Amino acid sequence: MDESGNFTANAPGALKNRYQAEKESDSLLKGGLKLNHLRLISALADHGQVSAAADALTISQPAASRMLHEIESILKAPLCDRVAKGMVMTRFGEAMARRARTILLEIREADREITELKTGYGGSVNIGSVTAPAISLAVPAINRVRALYPSIQINIQQDTSNALARDLMSARYDFIMGRMPDDMSPRQFDARPLGLEKACIVARAGHPVLKTAPASLAELSELEWVFQPPGSLLRRTLEVMFIERGLPLPANVVSTPSVTLTMALIAETDAIAPIAEDVARFIAGSGNRMGRIAIVETDFDINLKPYSLITARGRALPPSAKMLHDVILDECERNRLAESDGL
Fold this sequence. Notes:
The chain is α/β, with parallel strands linked by helices. It has helices spanning 11-25, 27-30, 35-47, 50-57, 61-75, 91-119, 131-148, 161-169, 217-220, 233-244, 259-268, 277-284, 319-342; strands spanning 80-83, 86-89, 124-129, 153-158, 175-178, 189-204, 225-227, 253-255, 273-276, 293-296, 302-312.
């Protein structure tokens, strides 16, 4: 039938082709493709080794190898190629892994939604975050949500923005708080700006540098430092600041990604460290041994890239995750209004 509502001469052929296409589209299910097959495909793509995928699924390696052979027989195409240190997915494997993750995610979300409909926001939420918004936004938002729905399960992990984005696309998180990854296409994400992260320099209480405030970057360059690992955003930002001012990079440096270890080193030595300002204020006010640090007043600011609330494009959030997502946005607006009132 054409746009005018008239039957065209080739309509019977078109209907036949459509029927044949729909019939062929069921070939995977009719061939015996199962949910466990999809789990294995996803695990193989994630781990790059049959043995590691088998461990993730708590099955034996021979069982995983047999299942892989079954899948390739159903697909009539190879899923992976063997390489020196494991295996890599073929283009067929990559396509199936992408679809498998989507199907498994939808099944998991269906289970969560049914649970939430039965119990009323009694499901679970999985989020990832860089450090600053985790403390300034996620913690108060989680407290608000749990006050209303005590049975809700909230899991939060801290990592770098690039790692968080990869795990978001693998459906390990419902949403993340961080920066848009620089190693993935932004077309895969939707983002809501949350704010600009600020960092500061911290030292132990009583450190000599606290007596000469405000400290210049030139003065601080001669001190011992505890830095994040090479290549991290905060470390790169400070290194660029040193270079742009024609200053030598600190020579006495300890590197660690751990905030806990950073604080322990600061508390016991004369080293100083850059950390997120929200984190510094939280720790300094904790009142315990680790809290015996002070923020160094400086004649310069350390402003990092803005961070956002990021979701996978085209993936709907289940009710519990949507609720926490919206409460975080509300916390962000509260903070913004509070800052405006304080000006």
